[in-house]
Every structure is written in structure tokens, then in C-alpha cells.
């Protein structure tokens, strides 16, 4: 028993010391991790799979791994005990912190109006973790909205991620489950390109065309192609934006669980997805800086696009390091243009506050209940503190808001109606 516990501690220490940006010593390293980091062969806590916790998500998000009670690197789920009233989740990853699931907001937008609510369960994918307080099944959507069939009561990290990570990208760019050993992650701008006879892991160990079904029994036929900077868990203000490139397959991958959202014949398909930019739309995207402003801004991480013709790792790495790249007619609207993958601080897991709010930044400030002047008004603050609003945009409360002093919805990044 002592040997098992020591092994787990050593694995956790290696993850903390070396981080996921390092290909040689990261815990997963693009593929299956050290077995005893997740399993306990003599003192398992789960009824199946000999897991060290009661279920998959509790194992992934334990205090030594993805649910560590501190911000940084691979942490994606803030424990309930680390978030008091008015205190946001700790992490600022592109996918968002699952901690937003535990933050419910209520407010009265104007005198005499009814109380409005932004329920925590509506902020993202509700992962179920028996060992983690508050992380329960979605109480509203028993199956995924948009025609999905997965049972919400068993939704977990490995419903979308392949913890055993056998899928790999070979040196010739093809994807397989064999053909060469995985030498490291294929997720980052500093990931080492595989030599002949070698491979790197798929982005974030996400399931794909060669993965078996995870918890919930859903099988993916599309591959998710993307690359992000290894310093991805940071505030996107004075620290600079987190660069990311989305390639082929993103919306098709999401449609595995939300098929009606991608079906042109479904009433749920109300906004074009997987549709290429027109020349005019690309020009609008490239020129729009903020309400009433034009210029040539950086690639916008709050309203990103994908390039569905790109699967090549080198090209994705190049795009992710080019913050001034422009949209073109090869760019496409995708699900993650508007939504975060894990959770966000706003309803429907959107990247910006698009629901029931005229402005997302007010009088040059993040709106909040503790803001000053007009920015503190309930219709703008919507029950959030300044720190919570800022964190929902992956910023710090002390960061400059960005965009315009009175910034309207980022739908305008493409549609330019302001």
C-alpha cells in the first residue's frame, strides 16, 4: 500500500514540476499515463476500473491533478471550497473552468421587473464527480441539447477525452492508433514534431475516429485538430492573449453529441456552422476592433474561427504563433466561435455575455455589483462582482477591459451592426 501511495505522489510531483508544456515529463505526454497515477490495484475506491476515486471525473480532478485548488497549467476544475461568494473560479484556460457550474447569479434588471437568473448548471458541461462537492448531473438537460443521446447522469471527463490516449499523429500527418510510439503531446506550439517512425498525441487526448466510446457510450467519427500556446492558463490582459489555432473537424466533433446543431434541416440549426466566410465577412472580421472602431486587430480569442482544411501540425503551430493572422475565405464559423468547451461565466457557456445584456463592457469598466457608477447597475452586473465578470473573460479585475468603453455584443465581430 505504501508503494502505491508513494508512486502516486511521485507522479503528481512530476506533473507539478515539469508541467504539460514539456513533452518529456508531462503526466500524460500525449498518450496513456503512468498507470498507478489513476488506478489502485489493492485499495481502489471505485466499483469498476480500480480507480483511486469513486468515478472518472473525481479521479481526473483530484487535488493533485486537474482539480488542484490553485490556478495554473493543467488545472481546469476549481473545488467548491476555493470559491466563496463573489469569488470566481481560479483558472483561465481557453475551454473555461468547470467551477462556473457552481456559480448561480440572480438580479433584478430594473425596478418592478422580475428576478432573472443565470443558473450554474447552464454555464457548461455538467461533469459528474461523486467525490467533489457540487459537481452533479445536469438537472435540466437529461440528454445533450440538440438531439444527443448521452445520459447526463454519467457524463464525465472521459466521455470526450481518451484517458488511455492511443490515437496519435504520425510523422506524415496521418492519424492512427499504431505506427510509431507517442513521443509527446501534439497540443502545443512548442510540441516536438515527430520524426519518421514516431508520433505525437492528438489535441488534449480528445476522442476521435479511432477511439472507443467513453463513459456514456458515444463514439466520435471526427477528429479535433487544434494547437494552443503551452502558457494557455493565464489572464488574457496585460499577460497577452492566449494564442490558439483551430483546424479541421471542430464542429463535426461537437455534433457527435449535438447533431441537430449541425443539421441544416433541424429547427435547432439556427446559426450557420461549418460555413466558410465570405470575402466581405472576412474583411469585416479583420477590420473590427470594437464598437465604433476599425483597424487591424489580433486574432480574436473571444470570437475565434476555424480553418477546416487544416490538419497539419506544423501549419497549426504556425497559425497559433501568428497573432496578427487575418481571416479569409478559408475560415469557418464553428461551435467554439461562440461557446467555450468546458464552461463559462455566462449562460449557454458562451464566450461573452450575449444574453440579456446590451453592453459587455460599460463606461470603460468590467460591470459588477462592486463597480462604480453605471457599471454597477444590476442590468449590467447581473449579480457578478467585477472579479467574476473579468474572470469570465479570462482576465484579471485590474486588466484594461479592452475593446471600446461601451462595447456591445461580439456578434458584431462578424456582423458589424454597432
Secondary structure layout plus pairing:
Elements: H1 2-18, H2 56-60, E1 105-107, E2 116-118, E3 168-170, E4 175-176, E5 199-201, E6 226-228, E7 244-246, H3 250-254, H4 279-287, E8 288-290, E9 293-294, E10 306-307, H5 313-320, E11 331-332, E12 359-361, H6 378-381, H7 386-392, E13 407-408, H8 412-415
Antiparallel strand pairs: 1-2, 3-4, 3-5, 6-7, 8-9, 10-11, 12-13
Compose a concise summary of this entry:
It contains 8 helices and 13 strands.
Written overview of the protein:
With 418 residues, the chain is mostly loops. The chain has a domain at 1-68. It has helices spanning 2-18, 56-60, 250-254, 279-287, 313-320, 378-381, 386-392, 412-415; strands at residues 105-107, 116-118, 168-170, 175-176, 199-201, 226-228, 244-246, 288-290, 293-294, 306-307, 331-332, 359-361, 407-408. The protein has a three-stranded antiparallel beta sheet with strand order 4-3-5, with no helix packed on it. A two-stranded antiparallel ribbon has the order 1-2. The protein has a two-stranded antiparallel ribbon with strand order 6-7. A hairpin with a 2-residue loop joins strand 8 (288-290) and strand 9 (293-294). The longest helix is centred in the N-terminal third of the chain and has 17 residues, at 2-18. It starts with a helix and ends with a helix.
Amino acid at each position: 500500500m505504501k508503494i502505491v501511495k508513494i508512486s502516486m505522489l511521485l507522479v503528481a510531483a512530476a506533473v507539478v514540476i515539469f508541467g504539460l508544456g514539456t513533452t518529456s515529463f508531462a503526466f500524460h505526454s500525449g498518450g496513456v499515463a503512468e498507470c498507478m497515477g489513476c488506478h489502485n490495484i489493492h485499495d481502489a475506491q471505485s466499483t469498476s476500473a480500480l480507480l483511486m476515486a469513486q468515478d472518472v471525473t473525481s479521479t481526473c480532478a483530484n487535488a493533485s491533478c486537474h482539480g488542484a485548488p490553485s490556478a495554473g497549467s493543467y488545472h481546469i476544475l476549481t473545488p467548491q471550497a476555493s470559491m466563496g461568494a463573489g469569488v470566481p473560479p481560479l483558472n483561465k484556460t481557453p475551454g473555461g473552468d468547470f467551477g462556473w457550474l457552481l456559480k448561480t447569479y440572480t438580479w433584478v434588471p430594473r425596478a418592478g421587473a422580475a428576478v432573472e437568473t443565470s443558473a450554474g448548471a447552464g454555464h457548461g458541461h455538467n461533469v459528474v464527480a461523486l467525490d467533489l462537492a457540487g459537481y452533479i448531473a445536469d438537472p435540466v438537460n437529461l440528454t445533450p441539447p440538440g438531439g444527443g443521446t448521452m445520459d447526463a447522469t454519467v457524463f464525465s471527463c472521459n466521455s470526450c477525452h481518451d484517458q488511455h490516449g492511443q490515437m496519435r499523429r504520425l510523422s506524415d500527418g496521418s492519424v492512427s492508433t499504431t505506427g510509431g510510439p507517442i513521443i509527446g503531446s501534439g497540443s502545443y506550439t512548442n510540441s516536438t514534431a515527430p520524426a519518421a517512425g514516431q508520433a505525437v498525441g492528438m489535441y488534449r487526448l480528445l476522442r476521435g475516429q479511432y477511439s472507443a466510446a467513453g463513459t456514456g457510450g458515444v463514439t466520435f467519427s471526427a477528429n479535433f485538430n487544434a494547437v494552443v500556446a503551452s502558457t494557455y492558463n493565464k489572464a488574457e490582459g496585460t499577460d497577452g492573449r492566449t494564442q490558439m489555432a483551430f483546424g479541421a473537424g471542430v464542429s463535426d466533433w461537437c455534433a457527435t453529441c449535438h447533431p441537430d446543431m449541425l443539421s441544416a434541416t433541424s429547427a435547432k440549426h439556427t446559426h450557420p456552422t461549418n460555413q466558410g466566410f465570405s470575402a466581405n465577412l472576412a474583411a469585416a472580421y479583420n477590420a473590427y476592433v470594437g464598437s465604433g472602431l476599425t483597424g487591424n486587430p489580433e486574432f480574436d480569442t473571444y470570437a475565434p474561427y476555424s480553418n477546416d482544411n487544416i490538419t497539419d501540425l506544423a501549419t497549426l503551430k504556425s497559425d497559433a504563433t501568428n497573432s496578427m493572422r487575418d481571416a479569409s475565405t478559408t475560415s469557418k464559423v464553428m461551435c467554439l466561435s461562440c461557446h467555450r468547451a468546458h464552461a463559462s461565466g455566462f449562460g449557454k457557456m458562451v464566450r461573452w455575455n450575449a444574453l440579456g445584456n446590451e453592453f459587455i463592457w460599460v463606461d470603460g469598466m468590467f460591470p459588477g455589483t462592486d463597480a462604480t457608477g453605471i457599471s454597477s447597475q444590476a442590468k449590467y452586473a447581473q449579480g457578478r462582482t467585477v472579479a467574476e465578470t473579468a474572470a469570465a473573460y479570462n482576465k484579471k479585475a485590474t486588466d484594461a477591459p479592452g475593446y471600446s468603453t461601451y462595447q456591445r455584443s461580439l456578434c458584431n465581430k462578424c456582423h458589424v451592426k454597432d
